[in-house]
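REQUEST
  id: r-88c1
  op: predict_structure
  target: ATP-dependent Clp protease adapter protein ClpS
  payload:
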Amino acid sequence: MTEREKGPAAPGRETGVATRTRPKTKKPTLYRVLLLNDDYTPMEFVVEVLVRIFNKTPEDAARIMLHVHQNGVGVCGVFTYEVAETKVAQVMDAARRAQHPLQCTMEKE
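RESPONSE
  id: r-88c1
  status: 200
  body:
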């Protein structure tokens, strides 16, 4: 039986529809991962890093590498903070292990 069929509500007791408000989810802040040019790291190594760490195709990796070479800096990708931080650490680790001075950093989008 519905509330209407039962008759009026008891005094002091209100009837109505309960609504639940959903909290608005905020999109996470994004960060650009940047490669910095140097005159010592081989271009092939930069392409390998872009393919292996950033999952770029060899063609995209070569295009980004040339952009970095010609402009001094280039964007490898845009990620959430934790992912960007991990990518930067992976690049720096790979460069250190290969004894190249390649630098990688991140900045807020």
